[in-house]
Every structure is written in C-alpha cells, then in structure tokens.
Specification:
9 helices, 14% strand, Rossmann fold, alpha/beta, 43% helix, NAD(P)-bd_dom_sf
Length: 276
C-alpha cells in the first residue's frame, strides 16, 4: 500500500541512527514530510546524504537538537510548521541506556542522566507538540517508543527500567487527557535491540563493571519465551536482536489513519521474547 502517510507531517527524534533512521526512511517512502531531529550533527548529515540519493530530499529537513532542552523541543515544532505548514505526528525514539547498575550501586549522575533523557525528555518533546496541537485543533498521532523494560523489570539496570516505566505511564496519561481532542498517544515497546549506544566501545566496559550485568544481561526475560525465540533467524551468537525495519513498520501503522481507533495502545515488537 503506497501513500499511507500522505498529508502527514512528523517530527522523528533520534532520527540519525537505528530505529529512528529506519522509521524516517519508512515515513518518507509513504509520502510523509519529516523533521528529523537528533543530537548528533554528523548522523544527520549522513542521513541527508542517503535521503538525497533516494530522491526524498524535498520531504526532509533535519535539526540538531536535544530533547532535554525546552528551546530545542519548541524549535523542532517551529521548523515543522514554518517548513511544511503544520505538524500532526510525533514519533519519539531518542533515548539512552544505563549501565546495568542495580539499586544499591547506581550512581546519582547516571540516574539523573537516564531519567532526564528517557522520561523528562519524553515529556518535554510531547509538551512542545501539544502546545501546537491543542490551540490549532490538530488531530494528531503521538508515538512514544518505550521498551519492554517498561513491563519487565529484569531487562536492564534500575535507572533504565524506571525511566521507561515512567514514560509508559506518561503516554497512558496523555492518551487519557487528550484523546477527546483527537490526539492519539500510543507506544511501541521494542525488545532487545543492538542500538548505537550498545555498540559504543565506551559503553560495554563500563556496563560490565556493575554486578547488575551478571543479573540482567542476556537472562532478563521470560525463560520459555527466550528459549523459543532463540531459534529465530535473527539470532546472532545467541543474542536476540530486533530488526529496525520491524519497528519502522509499526511506527508507520500508528502514524497512519489505519490506526485511527487506537489510543493508549501498546505495540510490543520483541519477537515474542516476553511471552507469558
């Protein structure tokens, strides 16, 4: 089906890599206009080049900004409106991982950093969009990407789990508050995914220093679900990893009018690893 997002204008955060990048391309292929937001300029420059090669440049504008900064969140909305005349979709991927620290060993600075990005940042970019949607009576779709960590306390360290659980509750609250205004708020819960953060050479050694790594890493899922899913074609070295295209497909559906009757719903895209 083509043109599923014709007439949609979206902000995609975390658009420079991974699931955000895959979703940006999926949106462009469905004729959505996109403001691609990321806090790393080099990633956005690479994205622009790839988009140009595919012939989608007319429907993309990039913005180097930080979701923890109110002015940057407001600026992303301003760019969408000034460039494309409106805004009716927020797809929020930007986030950070913790270092598998347990409750007894988590450092204040790591807790504050993760909460600021994954929970407070989610609130700030959502608020910036709502401040445009509401006075302009925009019927909108807000897609907040949380994690199966929002429901599985054993999939990462304490800071990450708390932040994603909070973001999931935030989405539910917003769905209740603004569904009557025609603003739908749904979430995607990815399963294990090799993000750019996990592939950062500086991340692994620090994560492995915490005792939480032995408790959580590679074992924090429903056992029957894990044993079943390990037979899948996407498994590499016994690590279950989602493919960004599967996440992007869900994001297209939630942004489209096909999901018009969905509000406060969760798309868990994890290959079944959280079965049970």
């Amino acid at each position: 089906m083509a043109n599923r997002l014709d007439g949609k204008i979206a902000i995609v955060t975390g658009a420079g890599a991974g699931m955000g990048k895959a979703t940006t391309f999926a949106y462009l292929e469905e004729h959505c206009k996109v403001v691609a937001m990321d806090n790393k300029k080099d990633r956005l420059e690479a994205l622009e080049k790839e988009v140009e090669e595919k012939g989608f440049s007319d429907n993309l504008v990039t913005f180097t900004g930080d979701i923890t900064v109110n002015a940057d969140c407001d600026k992303a909305v301003d760019i969408a409106v000034s460039t494309y005349g409106s805004l009716n979709v927020l797809t929020h991927f930007a986030g950070v991982m913790d270092y598998f620290a347990t409750g007894e060993e988590v450092l204040d600075e790591d807790w504050d950093y993760v909460i600021a990005n994954n929970l407070t940042g989610t609130m700030k970019i959502s608020r910036a969009c709502l401040k445009y949607f509401l006075p302009n009576e925009i019927k909108a779709s807000m897609i907040l990407v949380t994690s199966n960590g929002a429901i599985q306390g054993s999939t990462s360290g304490v800071a990450y789990i708390a932040s994603k659980g909070g973001a999931q509750s935030l989405a539910q609250c917003l769905a209740f508050e603004y569904g009557r205004n025609g603003i739908r708020v749904n979430t995607i819960q990815p399963g294990p995914y090799m993000t750019a953060i996990c592939m950062d050479p500086a991340w692994g050694p620090k994560a492995m220093q915490n005792k939480g790594a032995a408790i959580h890493r590679g074992s924090g899922y429903n056992k029957s679900g894990r044993d079943w899913i390990l037979s899948g074609d996407w498994v590499t070295d016994q690590y279950v990893s989602a493919d960004a295209k599967h996440i992007a497909g869900g994001a297209v559906y939630l942004a489209s009018d096909e999901s018009a009757f969905m509000n406060s719903a969760v798309l868990r895209i994890d290959g079944g690893i959280c079965l049970g």
